[in-house]
Every structure is written in structure tokens, then in C-alpha cells.
Amino acid sequence: MKYWVILLLVLFSLCLQADITVEYKSGMSAEIIRTTKIDNHEYFNIYELNKAFHSRIQENILDSRLNLNIYNQQIIFLLESSYLKHLSQTYNLGTPIIIQNRKYLIPTSFLTHILPIIFPEKIETTKNKIIATAPEDNSIKRIVIDPGHGGKDPGAIGYSSVFEKDIVLQITKKLANILEDNLDVEVLMTRDCDKFVSLQDRTKYANDQQANLFISIHCNAHRYSKVNGVEVFYLSTAKTDDARAVEALENAVVYKYEGGKEAVKHYDDLSFILADMAQNEHLEESYNLAMKLQANLVETSHSKNRGVKQANFYVLRGAFMPSVLLELGFMTNKQEEKMLKNQNYQEKLAWAIFEGIKDFKYKYDQMR
Ligand SMILES: [Zn+2]
Hints:
- By secondary structure, the protein is α/β, with parallel strands linked by helices.
- The chain has helices spanning 2-16, 48-53, 109-118, 164-182, 199-208, 241-257, 260-269, 272-280, 283-301, 334-341, 343-367, and strands at 20-24, 31-33, 35-38, 41-45, 56-60, 65-70, 73-78, 83-86, 89-92, 98-100, 103-107, 123-126, 129-132, 142-147, 186-189, 213-220, 230-235, 305-311, 323-330.
- The strands form four sheets. The chain has a six-stranded mixed beta sheet with strand order 15-14-16-19-17-18, with helices on both faces. It has a five-stranded antiparallel beta sheet with strand order 5-6-7-8-9.
- Helix 9 (283-301) packs antiparallel against helix 11 (343-367).
- The protein binds zinc ion.
């Protein structure tokens, strides 16, 4: 008799824990979204959507908003309320969102009632079950590496008159091989020989190829030969004088080799605001990628850590993917130039960049 009571209690508690199963029309194996009951209302942790829908979640604490990207659509939760927005439509969850131990608990009515309205073709629900179209695979599959300069544009000219364009091409080729052999990705290069490619065409190529990452590889120059070290940039208006100096140096290509003032004007006319928006969406990811690359480069090269910086590079503008620009050392520094020419050192740098990309991809793909 006792056992019956226990069994009934177990069954009863299982019923209370009404997790939601997500089944896919494509036959992909199902996912479970765990739910929890608070004051008689059912909630789920919003991060549970990552595994089921490869969604992306962005907290915007200042505006009390939580942005959810699901099936490439943006849904905005207004925190501490029961409202959410999709396009121009507002929806009411019935009960407010709860923030508990840094977790965002969303009423399950979002899954059972609102998602099927927003995505009528993708999502059907029955009690505790969702039948969904499989989420898009947004993992990193294609990487464009961009060796700076080339052809008529030598880039920085080293202490012993070595050209930046040649060093970065050698490093890029090593990196491409390492990536293709050790990471499940396709690698494309904006140039694989000594030819001139305009800055605009480099980003356009990455966009056209629908690359998931864009990595531009450079070496630096400075009028003081003592200056040395590695630094990684991501796009924004340059924040420090130093960053502005590197920006001016790399952007000068346009004036010198792409047609003087006219060409510069053309780049400036490529509405910066629009271009900025293209990168804005990837700002946080570009920053994360830059941090990982910088950490690995410093550790491997033992070079001076010049840090992760923001600058407004023409070559990163308008890229619709996380994008960074690496400055692997100063050609104008005798010691660093010597190292940069060295094949073993180039190989080491390439491995360091690989490790940074691998770390980033691992985290990034998990979120997808
Ligand atoms: Zn350069």
C-alpha cells in the first residue's frame, strides 16, 4: 500500500514538472526545454532556447530589454513586464518575466502561445510539445583570411626593406593550412599571390562568400624604430591617438593606390552609418574574437601586449560577420622584423591565431 502512495507521489511530481519537448519536422533528435513552477505559473530559462532553436540572446540591461534572435527574427522582451515585441506587434505573456540568480525566466506561454503566432509556418504546439522546423545551422563553417596589401601596394616597409605584403601572405598561407587541417572549416583568401586587391573588394568577397569570420592580417610600422608589439583591432571610430595612427596607416592605401582623394571620398560616401550597422550587430563577437586572438598571440610571441583596440578601418567596414584586423608586429623594429621574416616564427604566429579562432568558434558554435 505504502509503495502505491510513493508511486502516486512520484507520478504526481512528474506531472508538475511539465517540461516541453521540441520535436523537429526534419526528424532531428528532439530537445527538452526544462520548465519550473513559481507561484503556480510555469517558466523556462531563456537560455534553454539556444540548444533547441540555435537562438542568440543579448541582454540590454540599460534599456531593461532582452533581445532574442530566433529563426533570424528579432524578438524583444521588455524586462520586468509581461510584454514583448516582434516587428511592430506587441504581445502579452500574461505574467511578467522573472529575473532570478541572473537567469531570465520566461512564462511558458511564450512557447505554447506566442511562438506559433509569430512563426505560423515553422512552429505548431500541442500541450507540452512543440513541433518545429529545424533551426538554421549558424555555426562557423567558412572563414575568409585577408593578407593585407599586395601588388603595387607593399604595405609597411621593414627595417631591412622587407615588404609587409610578402610577410602577411606567408603567414596567411600557413594559417589557412593549419585551419583546414585542424578545424572543420573552409578557408578562403582574398589573395593568394602578390596582387593588388582594393579594400572594398576584400570585404565584398567575404560577404559574397557568406563567410562567418573575416580576419585581416597586417604588420605595423612606426617612425620610432623602438616601438614594438602585437595588437588586434575591431571596427569602430578610433578611440586613442595610437589607434588613429594605425587606422590612418592602413587606410592610406586608398589614397595612395586606389585613386587619391576621389577614392577616399568614395569610401567615406559608403555611408558609414550603414556600414557601421553591418558591423554593429557583430561588435560584441568581433570584440570577443579580438580578445581571444590577442591573448593567444601575446602568449606565443612573447611580444609586447599592445592590447585590443577599436579603430575605423575601411577594410572592416561593411563586413556582415565578426571581423578583426591583426597587427602582428612592427616591420620598422629591427628585432621584430627579423622575427617576422623567420619561417618558424611565422608558423608559431599562425598556430596562435588558429588557437584563438578555435577557442572563439567553440564558444560561438555552442551558442548557435
Ligand atoms: Zn597593413
